[in-house]
Amino acid sequence: MEQIKISSAEDKASIYRELLPQIESLVSGEDDIIANTANVSAALKQALAYASWVGFYFLKNGELVVGPFQGKVACTRIAIGRGVCGTAAAEKRVVTVPDVSQFPGHIYCDPDSKSEIVVPLLKNGQVFGVLDVDSSVFDSFDSIDAEYLGRVAGIVARRSP
Ligand code: SME
Fold first, then answer.
1. Any atom of ligand 1 within 6 Å of the Cβ of 117
2. Tell me: the pLDDT tens digits for 55-111?
3. Which one of 39, 49, 92, 137 has the lowest number of neighbouring Cβ atoms within 10 Å?
4. Alpha-carbon distance 25 to 35, whole Å?
5. Does 43 contact ligand 1 (Cβ within 6 A)?
6. Which protein residue's CA is at the shortest distance from atom 6 of ligand 1?
7. Residue 16's closest CA among 158, 157, 138, 146?
8. At 106, is the secondary structure helix, strand, or coil?
9. Domain range holding 27?
10. Whole-angstrom Cα distance, residue 159 to residue 25?
11. pLDDT, tens digit, for every residue of 1-15?
12. Do the domain assignments include residue 29?
């Protein structure tokens, strides 16, 4: 089924404002990173109608390895500096891609993916993974997603070892 793009910035912000306390509550009292990121992936995928894939990659032995996610089968390993995920991890910054075909080195896991946002997970200034959200609609992500997904990444990081 085609995912629907939410065009109103206010709609988007209100979805995130409602979602953040739910995510806080999901992970409160739990410090198992797999359990927390599994539930956070599910919560984001359920709430964001424009998301076709939501998931986490974790840094292991110098590369990103797929963790809990919601969506189609994904690439298992991504080198630091490669693709959107590897770029966000290498540069420790949110990378927003309105049209994935225009991003040099973009890694196609799902051929339906048209736009993407990747947020680094940071603990004490060090990257330990990324949160990746894809959409089957071009230009789905903006500064609202960057801000709120950044907060989600911060919640996850605080609950991680
Ligand atoms: N497109 C990503 C790869 C991961 S998937 O989208 C789930 C990238 O270029 O890093």
1. no
2. 999 999 999 999 999 999 999 999 999 999 999 999 999 999 999 999 999 998 888
3. 92
4. 13
5. no
6. 109
7. 146
8. coil
9. 9-158
10. 11
11. 455 656 577 789 999
12. yes
In-domain check, residue 3: no
Q: Name residue, tokens 């797929």.
A: 66
**Tally of domains within the chain:** 1
Ligand 1, atom 5: closest residue by C-alpha:
109
145 touches ligand 1 (CB under 6 Å): no
Q: What is the pLDDT of residue 19?
A: 96
Helix (H) or strand (E) holding 45: helix 33-47
Pocket test for ligand 1, best of 44, 64, 78, 127 (most atoms within 8 A of CB): 78
Average pLDDT of span 37-65: 97
Q: Is 109 in the pocket of ligand 1 (CB under 6 A)?
A: yes
Q: Domain for residue 148, yes or no?
A: yes
> By C-alpha distance, which of 79, 43, 84 is closest to 63?
79
The answer as to whether 63 is a domain residue is: yes
| Cβ 78 under 6 angstroms from ligand 1 | yes
CATH number of the domain enclosing 23: 3.30.450.40
